[in-house]
Amino acid sequence: MRLTARLAILPCALAATALMADGSAVGASAAAQSGGTGGIRGRLVLSRTPRSNERRPEVASPGAAGPRDRPDLRVGVVYLDQAPRAAFEEPRPARATMDQRNERFVPHVLPVMVGTMVDFPNSDATYHNVFSLSRAKRFDLGRYASGNTKSVRMDRPGVIRVFCDIHSHMNAFILVFAHPFFDTTDPEGRFQLANVPPGTYTVVGWHEGEPRVTRPVTVTGGAWTDLDLLEP
Amino acid sequence: MLRIRRLYWPHVFLVPLLHLLACVLLVATHAFAQGLPTEAISVANGRVVFGGEVFVTAGEEDPGWFNYTGYEYNALRNFRASLSTEVRPSSHVQFLAEIRLDHGEHLSAYAMFMRVRPWPERRFDVQVGRVPPTFGAFTRTIYAYENVVIGQPLAYQYLLSLRTDAVPSNADDLLVQRGSGWLTQYPVGSSERTTGLPVFNNNRYDTGVQVHGVKGPFEWTGAVTTGSLSDPRLSDNNGRPQLAGRAIVQLGPAIKVGASGARGAWLDNSLNPDLPRGETASDFRQAAWAVDAEASAGRWLARAEFLQSSWQLPELGTPYITAPITARSLIVEARVKLLPSLSIAGRGDVLTFDDLAGSRETLPWEAPTRRFEGALTFKVTRNVNFKTAVQWNKRDGGRVRHDTLLAGQIVYWF
Predict the structure, then answer these.
(1) Looking at domain A92-177, which of 1.20.910.10, 2.60.40.420, 3.40.190.290, 3.30.70.120 is its CATH number?
(2) Do residue A54 and residue B117 have CB atoms under 8 angstroms apart?
(3) Rounded to 5, what percent of chain B is helix, strand, coil?
(4) For A168, which DSSP code?
(5) Does A37 touch chain B (CB under 8 A)?
(6) Residue pLDDT, tens place only, B66-89
(7) pTM for this one?
(8) Helix or strand or coil: residue A7?
(9) Nearest-CA residue of chain A relative to B84?
(10) Looking at chain B, which residue has its C-alpha nearest residue A125?
């Protein structure tokens, strides 16, 4: 039975690994369900408009700072609160990237699996100093220049708030999961959790640091379950 | 008669007590901080932005007045709440202001100016109002969370025996006030006993027009303001403005160097009746220049600044003060992060003065002063920091020649 469960989860883990390599979301494959698994798809609908991310008022500066990019704050993450036991076994090493570009972390939200090595390249002409004081992972990469990359292995599940010590308006989230059933939403809130073993789960819609909505859902083999998560 | 009290507790008791208090405060602060804003608050689609800082600094009494920024105000004993606002009605115009409550009672408009960017795609700005300082490097560090230690550099805070509304009648009058910047009195001008001026007053913004540009690695700023470095003002008091300029070159991401200069009248018109015939307050200038450098890499950051300022004084009697009196200061500071939430920092600075010949002896016109401050900073969260610092002060004059002070600070900002 244990072997069967492993086989069932393997395609999912592989898909997760492949997609995480370019820093994008995991498990959102549009591929057909396999091995009798099902899927969940729908929209995360937020009731609160996110505030724009702005620099602190620059009252000590003789002039305004240069232009910068703003993060897309509409992006959220949808994930299973509890996953089948087999999903926690044999996490595969993977890499993901959170770039620092034009005074912005790209992507703003990065979900990964435990064990993933996250690279933080600096693509700006100025120094950046990535750090986090989150319980799930405390690190400080120090100041480093354009063209350099430093990396951190995410070895515990949890939410990691990432900041730049030089540019206080730069912030991002890394969500570290012990299972592969999560997806970042697109700007319209759409998500897909593929290859979910049949069963009953709790789906969580997360946005900007907090779970906003949870819904129970039952997944049947070989079919998509449609689910819209409406924030109260 | 002034009564100076001091905590005479031996440090062997004080240090554990401070740390116990810090632990209690850290736990309470961490719990409290969870519900507070962690970044600037923006409304109206980012057109209005609010930032703020609140800090409490507790330190020992300072009978040598080494850290006083006014007769009643000690930089190591302060409760400050500040709120800064930026309103951006268009891509060309911004209005910026900062309101501060210091020592829990003194409310002031620290900054209030309009910024105009004629060409939105070019980094060229004109600022009008109570504008940020043009001169110097430390003036960019206006918030407690940016300061590597708790105290301020001597050149930006320490009170000298100079006043805008009263002047010495001769060199002896000036020499007798050495080390008494916290409460000076001169026979010419106002007879009130009050505080002197620092080399550069970092606790107030000056009023005027400022232009600023950035082109590649070069950055420059020029300003015309009503006050002087030692006495930034809201309204003019002598009819002659100050001119100031600063240039910065970014030599790479790791190093930048800067140079500043300023020149302006510093005495108050109220002195005019006491000045020699044909001279007015506007004839007496404060002139200053400075060079600075900042380097950083990995987990360390280092800054250094050298500045020189001179003040012209009227020649009223013998022994005359014939030349401008000059002060020089060297500031060196560094910070190293030991852990993601823990850093150690130190700042050493000296403030020296030219010799002045009195009727009996020749001495530096003010008492040379040295300071070293070491600090540990613990980040409770990203925007809640706790600092503890030890500060050594030494002065070649005044009634308290040296003192060691302990201080602690909790800072919250968004």
Answers:
(1) 2.60.40.420
(2) no
(3) 10, 50, 40
(4) T
(5) no
(6) 999 887 789 999 999 999 999 999
(7) 0.86
(8) helix
(9) A57
(10) B253
